[in-house]
Amino acid sequence: MELANRVKDLTPSSTLAITAKAKELKQNGFNVIGLGAGEPDFNTPEYIIEAAEKSMRNGFTKYTPSGGIVELKKAIIQKFQNDNYLTYNTNEIIVTTGAKHALYTLFQALVNPGDEVIVPAPYWVSYPEQIKLAGGKPVIIAAEEDNDFKITPKQLEEAITDKTMAIIINSPSNPTGMMYNKDELKKLGEICLKHNITIVSDEIYEKLIYTNDEHVSIAQLSPDLKEQTVVINGVSKSYSMTGWRIGYAAGNETIIKAMTNLASHSTSNPTSIAQYAALKAYTSDEDPITEMKLAFKERLDKLYSLLIDIPGITCNKPKGAFYLFPNVKEAAKLNGFNHVDDWVAALLEEEKVALVPGSGFGADDNARLSYATSIDLLVEAANRMKQFVINHQ
Ligand code: PLP
Questions:
Q1: Looking at this predicted complex, what is its ipTM?
Q2: Do residue 165 and residue 268 come from a single domain?
Q3: Are 229 and 126 within one domain?
Q4: Which of 76, 225, 305, 349 has the CA that lies 20 to 30 A from 203?
Q5: Which of 242, 262, 283 is the last residue of a domain?
Q6: Ligand 1-lining residues (CB < 6 angstroms)
Q7: Ligand 1: nearest atom to the Cα of 38
Q8: For residue 334, how far is its CA from the centre of ligand 1 (angstroms)?
């Protein structure tokens, strides 16, 4: 059977692939420590589960409006007002089947064949693939590790052509955990306005910040920037609700309407009961995030100090999300590997520690470790990595 061209070059998600491999080894009886996961290891809070259960009993088990129920849209509008000082109307919000599908639908709605979308690297693995699926061309700008993995205004100016139609900003970032500050966003935003470039601002890790830095949405910096930006967010990471699949986009009414039309022919609507669960997350007085953040911060500090103690490994300390993205090129070399991908594979094979190679994120010298697992396992993983580097020289 001949497949469509659009899927022929599609690369499977490297994060999901490594998680599957680690699971397989575990099932075969190996003591694997998986640091590949892109999801919090905490359960969805009980009161959210109860709200979903109640919604089922109350009969909310039917189709909903394609763009999401009005109550949830209103709760999301309130969240934007409280957290980001942004004011939206319900026709400027779409609730989607996870933030991933918000992004997918957005690129389908925005990108024409041949259009260029700027993607700063290191990037989240799905951005380039989603842009390609919409017929667009991802234009990668390599953010320097020395600049804390942030692109500069000069790099942005140089990457812009007459085909550039959008840029993705992901702050706090997966995989690096870096964050842009207000001043940096302002400078990048001015360039986007000058060239009429749409800004896709993926703020899914907004709530997971471990320093005193404040999350800034580029959309809040001026009315013009708000008009030019589509903000992407969701409940997956902040409320430990990855499986519920609720995300959303906020932006210009015309874009949101087009996305809603697309959704009406693809998903119909995000799952009804998950929408009621998300509504509870946004309207409850309970605060599960603070506790989760405390645990993440403790793990980050511990794992970071152990990692930078390993020969050949350097690491910028992340400010947010739940990943470390060390440069492991020298460690790989010490172990006789020219490519970090091979080093990561050998580490899994021999020490049973699963990392995700940086190549999938557009950064060949790095690897991603998720600290969404217990501190004991993180310590054990770092010990195994150290032994591996030291014993195989
Ligand atoms: N954006 C980034 C940067 C992510 O890391 C992820 C999940 O890994 C998503 C979007 C998608 O989140 P969701 O689970 O809501 O689809």
A1: 0.99
A2: yes
A3: yes
A4: 305
A5: 283
A6: 38, 98-100, 124, 170, 174, 202, 204, 234, 236, 242, 247
A7: 8
A8: 34
Q: For residues 270 and 382, state if they share a domain.
A: no
Distance 330 CA to ligand 1 centre (A): 30
CATH code of the domain containing 359: 3.90.1150.10
Q: Which amino acid is it at 245?
A: R
Give the predicted TM-score (pTM) of the model: 0.97
* Domain assignment of residue 193, given as a range: 62-283
Residue partners of 368: CB distance under 8 A and separation at least 6: 15, 36, 175, 323, 324, 325, 355, 356, 358, 361
Which pLDDT value is given to residue 292? Answer: 94
Task: Say whether both 207 and 325 belong to one domain.
Answer: no
- Indicate the number of domains in the chain: 2
Is residue 16 very low, low, confident or very high in pLDDT (cuts 50, 70, 90)? confident
Query: In ligand 1, which atom is closest to the CA atom of 202?
Result: 1
| Number of residues that this document lists for the chain | 393
Neighbours of 47 (CB within 10 A): 14
Ligand 1 center from residue 204 Cα (angstroms): 6
In a shared domain, residues 334 and 299:
yes
